[in-house]
Amino acid sequence: MKHFPKSLQQKLQQREQNNALRKLPVSNALIDFASNDYLGFANSEEIFNKTHQYLLENNIKINGATGSRLISGNHNLYQITEDFIANFHQSETALIFNSGYDANVGFFSSVPQRNDVILYDELCHASIRDGILMSNAKSYKFQHNDFEDLEKRLTVCHTERSRGAFFEIYVVTESVFSMDGDSPNLEELVTLCEKYNCFLVIDEAHALGVFGNHGEGLLQSQGLQDKVFARIMTFGKGLGCHGAAILGSSALKSYLINFARSFIYTTGLSPHSVATILMAYQKLKTEKEAIENLRNNIQFFNQEKMQMGLKPLFVYSKSAIQCAIIPGNEKVKSIANQLQNNGFDVKPILSPTVPEGQERLRFCLHSYNSSSQISEVLKLLSSFVF
């Protein structure tokens, strides 16, 4: 087949004209300010070796799951790992999905029912929005971290309920937003959801490993874990491996097993993948140094950007994600290239991934970044933008 559909070619050409055509990057040896490996677990020889040893000690010599978890892929290691995760996060149950994308698509496409209402933060991740699009529920976005705007929508729902309409309300947000690095006021949000009898769902992908004494996430660090209907924990960031889990009640777990299509109709993770998740969680439970180093680096980064007069460029964040707004795809790509040419792997985030005019440099901080590296990359940024 030599031909390619003209409409698709035109869309590619449009992306190229807008300087927004995506291409797969090649691996590099630059100083890492781009990956989500916040604690360095992805490159941990300790986790790698313990995973291998665990599989050998338990005589698990299987390369693949062999099928979906409902057919032949639900090996015993799944139950062991899910029990550990539930205990770690002080949740009744945990259900592992193949990825954070699968978890969000599976949850939001199956849990909210026809005539239910989903109210979601306008900056929620694409996986949440894709799941919502697959749902039969009504959905409305509220302004980012704006609970006055959210309450206006909740008031409308309350009025409809008072007139005899029956429907559930799901309020959806993230504890740390992937493109801004900021967080909502979770205590205020919990209070609001309790007032209007809503089901609160929080994606904690970028909080796991970053917040809490043992990296347990922002909700748990604030003692709010029992105030939410569901938490989505993704393992490809702070945990350094792959997969995700939805935390919630036994009834929710049973429902997802029966109705979440991204869980039902896919081959399960291999025993090796699940063992890696278990070993990473075990390390997280006892980890102190990496978590403390990461927190110190976040604090130091914020201090340095203030001293260098860079603070106005950045979105307010106390997380490992720090974003400098530099409007225009061409301009932000140019500055990113200059930083990379000087040895620092900093990636530009372009429109349409973010709204036009909100293009940015995204700095991801890690436990293994040094103070000198942080100072140097910010000095370079200052020299390129001022």
From TrEMBL:
Residues 30-377 form the Aminotransferase class I/classII large domain. Keywords: Aminotransferase, Coiled coil, Pyridoxal phosphate, Transferase. Residues 277-311 form a coiled coil. GO terms for molecular function: transaminase activity. Pathway: Lipid metabolism. The keyword Transferase applies. InterPro entries: Aminotrans_II_pyridoxalP_BS, Aminotransferase_I/II_large, AON_synthase_class-II, PyrdxlP-dep_Trfase, PyrdxlP-dep_Trfase_major, PyrdxlP-dep_Trfase_small. Its cofactor is pyridoxal 5'-phosphate. It holds the Pfam family Aminotran_1_2. The keyword Cell membrane does not apply. PANTHER family: 8-AMINO-7-OXONONANOATE SYNTHASE (PTHR13693:SF77), CLASS II AMINOTRANSFERASE/8-AMINO-7-OXONONANOATE SYNTHASE (PTHR13693). Belongs to the class-II pyridoxal-phosphate-dependent aminotransferase family. BioF subfamily. This is Pyridoxal phosphate-dependent aminotransferase family protein. It comes from Flavobacterium solisilvae.
